[in-house]
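Might you be able to review the protein record set out just below?
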Amino acid sequence: MSELPVVSAQNISKSFRQNSGESLEVLRDISFDIMQNEIVAVIGHSGCGKTTLLRIVCSLEAADGGFVLLDGAKCVKPCKDVLMLFQDFNQLLPWKTVLGNVTHPLVVTKTILSREDAKKHALKRIAEVGLTGFEGSYPHQLSGGMKQRTAVARALALQPRVLLMDEPFASLDNITRGTLQALTHGVCEKYGITTLFVTHSVEEAVVMSDRIIVMSKNPGRIKAILANTERNAPPECRAEFAAEILKLLDSQED
């Protein structure tokens, strides 16, 4: 008996009504499975519906056609088992400290009933993202990279079944981005968190994912789903694989 996918997108389609009254088709017939502990990247040019796809998987947006299954059951509303991490640095609560931001969702969702236990749990996640010593700092006192570390710690504190990431490192400098890529990948592997993330960076897709979904646009469709065997390969091998993906991306555009 085969293992059941954690996430299964089945024939997802989505259109939006424009100001002109015309309908713009954003996604057409999107289907894929993500297995337990897999990290899957979605890559494609702007306008191919990557963020809309994440929002549908997270049940923040309703599909016009098709459906999403979580462990074999249809997803019809947002749940704490599926969390989304955004690119926006302002996703933190500005009136709460780093510790407060990480502890808050644990208390609100009653994931951990005791505030003292929630604090202990949050401190472990904060340490894992390298923010020990900054527990009492407020968001306005943090750099962009530190804010994203806090957001990662907050998401991981809830130990979601599925983590969705919408270009979470795109606005960071190269050094900080690389550090957070490695950190996030390592923590997701450690806790067995199934991950789907959107990126414009082919390099990021290669260094972080187990498989890569390559999308075309007008409307967004799946061009290919590639097994990533080069993530731990030497840099020159990763570069060759990245070049192949770029050719595939360029070949799909009109």
The chain is about 35% helix and 25% strand. The chain has two domains: 1-81+162-254, 89-159. The mean pLDDT is 88. Residues 5 and 35 are 5 Å apart (CA to CA).
